[in-house]
Amino acid sequence: MACLVTIRAGQEMRQWPLDEWTTFVVLAALSAEPETFDELAEAIRRYLPEHRLLEQDQQVTRLEQAVSGDGPWCLVDLAGRTVVGGGGFEVPEAQGAYEVDEHDQTDGFQLVWLDTPPDWVFQQAEEDWQQVTAERAEAVGGRSRLDTREVLFGRPLLEHLAAGVMAGIAEYREASKKQQWELTNKIHATWLMAPRDDLNGRTPRQLLLADRERITRDLEHRAHQWSMQRFAPPALSRDSLAYRFGGFGTTEVVLYYDLVRSLLDEAWRGADAESGATDERLIEQLAAHRDQWLVTQHENGGGPETPSELIESERRRMPVTSDGSHLDCDCPICQVEVAGGFGPMFMWFDGHHLELEDEFAFSLIESREEWQWEHADCQELSEAMDPKQAEQQVPPETDDSYGSAWQSSFVSETAMSPDAPPGTAVLALGFRLAELVNDVKQRSNDRTHVEALNEAYLKLHAAQSALVMQPAAELLCEQLEAVADEYPDLVSKSADLQSCLQEVLRHSHSNDS
Known about the structure:
A hairpin with a 2-residue loop joins strand 1 (2-9) and strand 2 (12-19). The protein is 51% helix and 9% strand. Helix 5 (155-174) runs antiparallel to helix 6, helix 5 (155-174) crosses helix 11 (279-294) and helix 17 packs antiparallel against helix 20. The model is unreliable at 323-329 and 392-403 (pLDDT under 50). The protein folds into three domains: 2-141; 148-321, no CATH class; 332-344 and 384-394 and 410-512, no CATH class. It is globular and about 75 Å long. The protein is of the alpha+beta class.
């Protein structure tokens, strides 16, 4: 079924008849937040690398020309962030995945994801559709651009940290280690939670989390596409508006937390070491430390990438492949690759250590109500924990209470969600299992547990249905229990993996039903 597709960017409109699948590709390209015809053309190349659509269009001058008589039509207004469909064209949901039908012809990727920003409106045409489109174009298109990173990474951040440290340095010098940590937390939390005029009345935390889940989901879909087609989808241009002014994904949010903590540590050292320190001198010291930190290999990155490079990749919606360090014959992921599994491996940050702060300001959960619910649920689970596992928990008074059990494997929190692409959950579990296997190898030359864990994981990965996955998961749980019995310090990792297995099984049963 042909559909007359009209694209409006600013005052210019172009139009072309497209088959239904190519129309869906155009709508999926909106996930890259294009605002010009050139940006749209590049976004379409995610799915149709060789397309020449903009060379085959025709210009139109009036909005009414978007309507194709009684035939299917679709209008996409890039400035007003509006999609309208009529004449029999059913506008899809703004979020979702669509696969090419067997009767459709395409030379590109045969699966598209709509990860459209939440301020887009997708609607069927009603009598007032032209008025609605015009009003949204005036309201949305007239908004001024705000470079939030100039505030969040720039002088406003440094001024806040320097002022807080200078005001509290006397107290810090006399404080215990835990009290010093609390002083650091307070300065950090105040920065995240205070509304600012230079952020249009919003808080840094609100801006950091506003688009995090969608951007992370878009990156996961790019990684899944890369694995399926065996080559990388195109990245966003550094000149694109989405790159320059877009939101923050999980990687940047997590690294931003780490940067602020590193800056605070540096500020305490600088103020304590120099009795005549001033705010301005401390700001200069922090600016130099920030610049150096961003280009130094990140301690939890797992590869040679620096924080600046990791953030750059995420802003361009380009997944980061893991380095060669995982090429270990005992790594579960490598064994899956040998058995004909996934394509490239990818690095993810899950922000687990932010949640361990046990404070809403640092959590990746956007609303306080949801955070309180999650916090209460975790507390209830902790109180009901098996006594044997509870005995192995690190006491909250120790310094290690503020670190994650997982030290070298980082998995996106949405990797095991019901919306995750097929196989992603098992892959995510494999990364953490690889760390556990390495822990076991460091503790003993006996390969019994290593081989048993890998054999169980291979069976789990090979399973194609919940019915087959159930016994494979039970076998892997048995091996994880055996590791916990042998090595009490690995109980927390074993328990976490078993919890992940339950999530995998629950979603598998849900998908099969």
